[in-house]
Amino acid sequence: MANTTGLIFLGPPGAGKGTQASLLAKFYSIPHISTGEILRGAITEQTPLGQQAQSYMDKGELVPDSLILELVKERLGQPDAEKGWILDGFPRTVPQAVFLDKLLEEQNHTSERVLNLDVPDEVILERLLQRGRKDDTEETIRRRLEVYREQTAPLIEYYRDRGTLHYIDGNRSPEEVTEALKAAIAL
Ligand code: AP5
To answer: Is the confidence metric ipTM above 0.85 for this complex?
Structure first.
C-alpha cells in the first residue's frame, strides 16, 4: 500500500466496517478513524458534542454536518494520519464526500481507495440484534438501514465514477473478508 493512501469504508450498518477497519489499521499501522466511535466517546463523557449528537444517534438519524465536518478535519490533521488513515463511517452523505475531497486536495493527498462491504439486510439485522449496542434495537436498525439507503448509498455511484471503488462480499467469515480487503488494497 502506498504511504499516503487513505482507505474509506462504505457499507450499511453492521456490514463489518468497524471490525475490518480495526484489523487493517493494526496490519498497516495507520489510524482507524471512526466517527461513530468518536461520537459515542463524546456521549460517554457528556461533552457538548455528545449532548448534541445523542438524540440523533438514539433515533438512527445522521448527526448534522455542523457537528461532524470540523471534527474529521481536525482528526485528519493530526500527525499520526500523515502517512495514511482508515475512515469508518465518514463520508456518509454526498456533501460530506465533497468536503473530504476538498480537504484532501488542500493537503495534497494523492490517492484513496473506497471499500464497499456488501451484506444483505436480514444478515445485518441478525448481527446487530445479537450485538445489542444502544442503537441496535430492531426499530432503530431499520431506520439506520433506511438512512443508509437514502443518504449513504448514493456515494457508491459517486466513487464508482472515479474508479476507486472496490466491492467486497461481507457476508462470509471475518477472516475471509479481511483477506478479500487486503487483496483489493494490494491491486
Ligand atoms: P457508526 O458507529 O458508524 O455505526 P454504523 O454505520 O451503523 O455501523 P455499525 O458500527 O453498526 O456497523 P459496522 O459496519 O461497523 O459493523 P461492525 O464491525 O461493528 O454510526 C453510529 C451513528 O453515529 C449513526 O447512526 C449516526 O447517528 C452517527 N454518525 C456516525 N458517523 C456519522 C457521519 N459521518 N455523519 C452523520 N452521523 C454520523 O459489526 C457489527 C456486528 O457484526 C458486530 O457484532 C461484529 O462482531 C459482527 N460481525 C462483523 N463482521 C462479521 C462477519 N463477517 N460475520 C459475522 N459477524 C460479523
So the answer is: yes
